[in-house]
Amino acid sequence: GRRAAFSVTDLSSVMHDAERRKALADQSAAETRGVIERNLRAISRLEEEVRGEQKRSEALEAQVADLREDLARDEDIFAAKHRALTEAQAQVARQGEQLTREA
Question: How many CA atoms lie within 13 Å of 25's alpha carbon, on the beta-carbon side?
């Protein structure tokens, strides 16, 4: 009888210990889940920021491309005006020579 009573107490203590360990494991798992969820939310936020930065970067690249086109057009216009000016100067010089010869 005495031995049986002792083993029941023993069993009760083992079960109590197992329940305590399970409760600790559950708590630890819940904490880990919380950390994982926080990290996932942080990753989502960062991915959103990256997408925003990429859009801004693409917009800036488009602006640079537009400015390069404007610059190329302005350079063409400048070159054409320069050619016209050179041509006009040459014409004036030719007319000057002609007038000098005719005089």
Answer: 6
